[in-house]
Amino acid sequence: MMMALTPEFTPGQLVSGDVVSVSLMAPVARFSLRLRAADIPAVSTAIGVDLPTRIGACAHHETVEVMCLGPDEWQIQTDANDSVRLINACAAIYAQVPHSLTDISAREVTISIEGPGAVDLLSIGCPRDIDKIAIGTGCRTVFDGVSTVLWRDGETRFRLDIWRSFAPHVIGLIQTGCAELAAQ
Asked: Is 0.85 surpassed by the pTM of this model?
């Protein structure tokens, strides 16, 4: 018998400073949605958010947030209390509008990075030009080779979704980067 140990992730402050603050965010309900372009209007109506069609574009309404990750792929985040409604809405139209809605809530954790050094901190592990990511958009990218989803919520405010199994590695790098930025 093999036992897998997974680290516990307790939401809260990881690093606090004048240059940058990093927090582990509370869990959210998270879904991967795949569907044909012709079915976007029906699913948008069902879930109550117009699915964006430009890669990297985001949309939100009340507790539901959506990012277009590819031509037929979206990531949906919502409050845990709203997940059943979202699942049921998609199930109700499935016979007429085939799609794939997969609950990936347990797969990822999210860290919040904010402050005047946020772009510099993200740049230590992310090959993207962070300054070119528009506020209110995001992208699928990598951080030190780890697949991530990066949301830009403000000029100096970001969220980084990380697969749970890679989170200790990425969080460790970010904490080291915070110490380096604070020492400058």
From this structure: yes
